[in-house]
Amino acid sequence: MAKFKFPKRYDKDVASAGIKFDIHDEFGNHYGRFLTRYLNGNDPKYQLIRTRLDRTHALAVKTKQMTDDDVFALAFVEYAIIGWEDVFGEDGEPVEFSLEAAKEYFAEPDAKFVLGQLISNSLNVEFYQASTPEEAKKK
Description:
Elements (H helix, E strand, L loop, with lengths): L11 H6 L1 E6 L5 E7 L7 H13 L1 H5 L5 H13 E5 L13 H9 L4 H11 L10 H6 L1
Antiparallel strand pairs: 1-2, 2-3
């Protein structure tokens, strides 16, 4: 059987460590800076999270209490969002990042815009490249 060599579409170290994305709306409102991994659907960790969430929420999806998109969003938050800065609570104080805080944040209807921006960015391999051509050649 033949072995094939494929070009690397992204830097695995950069993809795993994540990239910080500042999210602004069309009016210049700043929603925060989010540290987000490259969303690799082939990553066993992502597949494990997605399978667990599919099983956990199967009845809710079947009874139309949730959609498959809702389950995908939960998997994205758990897998890809690994930190944040400049995210504030109702009291105006910064909210420390945790997985539970992220789940609460992205459950808010007003966070759907931010979620969409982050999903779009995390699917774009152009953001997850080595910093310099020299770094890329070493890999």
